[in-house]
Amino acid sequence: MTTKQHDASVYEEIQESAEFQDLKRRFRRWTFPMTAAFLVWYLLYVVLSGWARDFMGIKLFGNINVALIFGLLQFVSTFWIAWAYSRHAEKKLDPIADKLRHEVEEKTQ
Question: What is the pLDDT of residues 74-107, one digit of tens each?
């Protein structure tokens, strides 16, 4: 058995493990809904900009209108999602990933 074949079998074994499947499930349970929510939020902004111009043009104070606030909130929500994901990964994903990484390192040495 060559090293490449051995390494492939180690990775396949890890991939089939319950811990790896749990890691994937936890990742997807957070990432997919958050991605969908952000896409809906972004598309709402685009649709309102194209078809609700009167609403988006409402001046809130000075030259600041609803469209500008929604546009700035796109940036805020992007940074919030990145921050929230980093916290989620640190608490829920990283411990499992570290354990799996150590298992792979032990088996491939």
Answer: 999 999 999 999 999 999 999 999 999 999 888 8
CA-based torsion, 30, 33, 36, 38: positive or negative: negative
pLDDT for the residue 76: 98
Nearest by Cα to 81 from 44, 45, 49, 36: 36
CA distance 58 to 75: 21
Give dist(CA 57, CA 63) in Å, integer.
10
Beta-strand (E) ranges in the chain? 59-61, 64-65
Q: How do beta strands 64-65 and 59-61 pair?
A: antiparallel
Determine the average pLDDT of the residues in 51-64: 96
Q: Give percent helix, percent strand, percent coil of the chain, each to the nearest 5.
A: 85, 5, 10
Mean pLDDT of the chain: 92
d(CA 17, CA 8) in angstroms, rounded, equals: 14
